[in-house]
Amino acid sequence: MCNKVNTASIFPGIAALFILSLLPLFLTACSRRPDIQQGSGIYFDTAVSMTVYATGDPKEEVLTQCFSLASYYEDLFSRTKEGSDIWNINHAEGKPVSCNEETITLLTYALTIADQTEGKIDPTIEPLAALWDFSSASSALKSHSLPSEDAIQSALSHVDYHNVVIADDTVTLTDPQAGLDLGFVAKGYIADRILDYLKTQENVSGAVINLGGNVVFYGEKDTKNPFKLGIQKPFADTGTPLATASWKRSPAHSQASFVTSGIYERYFIYEDQLYHHILDTGTGYPVVPDIQSVTIYSDSSMEGDALSTTCLILGAKEGLRYIESIDNAEALFVLVNGEIRTTSGFPAYELVKD
Predict the structure, then answer these.
(1) Residue 168 lies in a domain
(2) Considering its fold, how many domains does the chain have in total?
(3) Are residues 36 and 219 in contact, defined by beta-carbon separation less than 8 angstroms?
């Protein structure tokens, strides 16, 4: 089974994690081995790959359904795809919009994160993000200019998660010029739902779900070999590892999520100054980082999504302290000087020599 390629846009970015033993997935869409199903495609403007390991003859519809779920959620959560719930909310001019139950669930979680971070992460960031337009900043060679101070402050005046009102199955933006962007949690939510589906399939013994910077391991590919992944070297070519880590299931953990966020994913350089896509909701400008990237290890990819972005905003010292206070979450930080710091329970890793 070869999966079709879907080119619709949702959350632009490049892969920050990659599966070392599965790099051919980026080059070929299908495996012919009878006990393994592999597929890849473009969803959320991101290279997506999935591998399913089966104890018996795998059913083609299992992998087909995984990619169907990716397409389904893209149609639901994309802020750029006309007719999605998020697009409808953003274009409702302040009127209530009836939404899918899962949109309500995801948005409720996003608002919880906004409240916990006192607005440092805000799902109504869309007007400010659109002004900076990092979606087109895939290369430092891209020609850019800075938004004016007046434009930044005007966009910032519409960033306030308190303007989101959820009532039963409807969502209202009380500020008609506000806009939602759930890019900081959506891919994680989607990865978790694909995993939920795979857990219901009796013949599935293991799986790898790779949604760009979100990688989820489930079960095992065989009884001897652990799953392996590479942690992207910041500002290097995609697929260049800074470090490698391994994961093997245990009685306590049948799954693992690794999520990386970094300032190198979308950025541009203007007058020798780097401007990246992690925006400060206090100033309207990119946060001043002391971190190049953060990798979160946890059971939930959605939680990892939210925590990785939070840590980039908090910085290394506060971010490390924050993750240490959270059960079942660990982190690896790559500082701007290249130094690596981890929380106490992050899996063992090895640096890759240049």
Answers:
(1) yes
(2) 1
(3) no
Per-residue b or e along 106-145, where b marks 16 or more CB atoms closer than 10 Å to that residue's CB? bbebbbebbeebeebbbbbbbbbbbbbebbebbeeeeebe
CATH number for the domain that contains residue 101: 1.10.3980.10
pTM of the model: 0.89
How does residue 326 score in pLDDT terms, banded at 50, 70 and 90? very high
- pLDDT digit string, tens, across residues 23-47: 333 333 343 444 889 999 999 888 9
Band (pLDDT 50/70/90 cuts) for residue 59 is low
Instruction: Report if residue 183 sits inside a domain.
Output: no
Q: CA 187: distance to chain centroid?
A: 5
Rg (CA), the chain: 20
Q: Is 32 a member of any domain?
A: no
Comparing C-alpha atoms, which of 189, 191, 184, 245 is closest to residue 218?
191
**Structural domain for 108, as ranges:** 92-173
Query: Is residue 258 helix, strand or coil?
Result: strand
Q: Which residues pair with 342 in a beta bridge?
A: 332
Task: Tell me how far CA of residue 210 lies from CA of 190, 253, 297, in angstroms.
Answer: 11, 19, 14
The per-residue pLDDT for 295 is 98
Closest residue by Cα to residue 300 from 221, 202, 189, 205? 189
Phi, then psi, of 330 in degrees rounded to 5: -135, 165
In a domain, 166, yes or no: yes
Whether the pLDDT of residue 17 is over 80: the answer is no
